[in-house]
Amino acid sequence: MATGYKVPTLDEFVQGVKDRNPGEKEFHQAVYEVSASIWDYIKDKEKYHRWEILRRIAEPDRIVSFRVCWEDDTGHIRVNRGWRVQNNNAIGPYKGGIRFHPSVNESILKFLAFEQTFKNSLTGLPMGGGKGGANFNPKGKSDNEVMRFCQSFMLELFRHIGDDIDVPAGDIGVGGREIGYMFGMWKRLTSKFSGVLTGKGLEYGGSLIRTEATGYGAVYFLENMLKVRKETLEGKVCVVSGSGNVATHAVEKLNQLGARPITLSDSDGFIYDKAGISQEKLEWIKELKEVKRGRIEEYTKKFKGTEFHAGKRPWSVPCDYALPCATQNEIMLDDAKTMIKNGCKGVAEGANMPTVLEGVHAFLDAKIPFGPAKAANAGGVSVSGLEMSQNSAKLSWKEDELQRLLKDIMQGIHDRCQEYGQSGNDKYVDYVRGANVGGFIKVADAMMAYGVV
Ligand code: NDP
After folding, report:
1. Which residue's alpha carbon is at the smallest distance from atom 28 of ligand 1?
2. Mean pLDDT within 290-309
3. What is the pLDDT of residues 313-327, one digit of tens each?
């Protein structure tokens, strides 16, 4: 260790991050959560401190921010801000989604890119961590407006991405339609056709089961946590939030495994269907959300005996298992306490950081199996990684093969979390610690191999 070097305490380390990144509360929250859970593991490992590994992972390699201007259907010029945060490429090209939502800011994208670095490492695939987006609200915009926005966004982003450099994908507000518009513009600007984005349509290089992968993967992760306890999902009541890509595919897989999902939500409130949201009802929801771009409230007009709770989240509904699949910070401490009191026996995070830190601790203290986002929702990026492999090899793999690979990868992530997260006599697995330590080691060891760069 360098002469005079003093290993910081956790508080000193986190305070440094706060001082260098003022006002970025989501980023502080993410760095604190990861650091606190790996501190015990790294505190006496001199090499990690000497190389300042954690501090370097918490300092993005680069951030680009740019103006995105476009013309709306009434002829007005609109101006938004776009970003790409390239956090760390120690183990592969930067990889992570693009989010279009009015709440997007640099702090949120930095938190997401930081988390993505650990998540991608956990998958076992060669992918670094990144994230991007814009404070653009696709809600209520026409197809043409969305197209013009996506094209303008790519007009700058194309300089910073590439199949061996940075491979973005979808996230909130960015699905197949937006990826198509962005890929079309990238192709036009570069005269190339390659796997520079994932989540592409099947006609132009996309992978089977990419759309389903995050939601399916979250349910597989939950299933793996239950297996440790010799339990299954058969007949279990599940509460799910969100009604987008992740939530609907989580509900689909829950149904396939014999569970009974009873809620879904959007930013207006949640629906409660005691009888269960069957596959048939789910098909209607998918059409409502993806094609008609309608609101979840409409479900109660279509299906009798169901309820809509305006302005609320579904956490007060008693359940066996919960899958938050909408957005960050949607399970607050009081929600977590209510869920525990009502007998919730497990949580798998489909969304990124949906549970506030105090809520996470409440679940861990109650010894409830808690699958954190970076492990439980890694199915999406895993199949994105498989899409990259297929694009490089100019091949398309069959659905059975991809389903098998997704299941295997989720099992591998679960087992890695278990390896680093199991302690104590009661064999309780702290998946938060397991995921953070398991994700950290590979990135850290690669960074040390490169020296100081
Ligand atoms: P979608 O845009 O398809 O759906 C998002 C859902 O969450 C919508 O129902 C939306 O409702 C709701 N929502 C968004 N913001 C809020 C808010 N502030 N309050 C309440 N509800 C809100 O996104 P995805 O399903 O793709 O993503 C959901 C989560 O999963 C995100 O955290 C994302 O980062 C994460 N994730 C997604 C992956 C993927 O493959 N898509 C991969 C890994 C993680 P409304 O329509 O009213 O906005």
Report:
1. 326
2. 95
3. 999 999 999 999 999
Q: How far is the CA of 173 from the centre of ligand 1 (A)?
A: 7
Pair 154, 168 in one domain:
yes
Residue 135 pLDDT: 98
34 shares its domain with 96: no
pLDDT digits (tens, 9 = 90+) for 193-221: 999 999 999 999 999 999 999 999 999 99
pLDDT at 3: 64
The answer to whether 100 touches 65, Cβ cutoff 8 Å, is: no
User: For 379-418, b where at least 16 C-beta lie within 10 A, e where not — what string?
Assistant: bbbbbbbbbbbbbeeeeebeeeebbebbbebbebbbebbb
Mark whether 181 and 86 lie in a shared domain.
Answer: yes
What CATH number is attached to the domain comprising 271? 3.40.50.720
The DSSP bridge partners found for residue 62 are 86
Q: Which atom of ligand 1 is nearest to the CA of 99?
A: 34
The confidence score (pLDDT) of residue 8 equals 87
| 244 CB within 6 A, ligand 1 | yes
The DSSP secondary structure of 95-144, one letter per residue, reads: EEEEEE-TT--HHHHHHHHHHHHHHHHHTTSS--EEEEEES---TT--HH
Whole-model pTM?
A: 0.93
Distance CA 175, CA 291 (A): 12
pLDDT grade for 424, boundaries at 50, 70 and 90: confident
Range of the structural domain that residue 127 is part of: 62-193
pLDDT at 1 over 60: no
- pLDDT of amino acid 427: 85
Q: Is the CB of 266 under 6 A from ligand 1?
A: yes
Q: What spacing in Å lies between the alpha carbon of 218 and ligand 1's midpoint?
A: 14
Rounded CA separation 319/262 (Å): 9
Dihedral pair phi/psi, residue 138, rounded to 5°: -70, -15
Asked whether residue 392 is assigned to any structural domain, the reply reads no
Sign of CA dihedral 258, 259, 261, 262: positive
Distance 323 CA to ligand 1 centre (A): 12
Protein residue with its CA nearest to atom 37 in ligand 1: 171
Q: What is the mean pLDDT of the chain?
A: 96
Tell me how many domains the chain contains: 3
Average pLDDT of span 154-160: 98
172 C-alpha vs ligand 1 centroid, how far in Å? 5
Q: Are residues 360 and 226 in the same domain?
A: yes
Query: Could you tell me if 130 and 146 lie in one domain?
Result: yes
For residues 303 and 272, the answer to whether their CB atoms sit within 8 Å is: no
* Residue 170 beta carbon below 6 angstroms from any ligand 1 atom: yes
* Contact criterion met (CB below 8 Å) for 214 and 245: yes
User: Which residues are identified as catalytic?
Assistant: 131
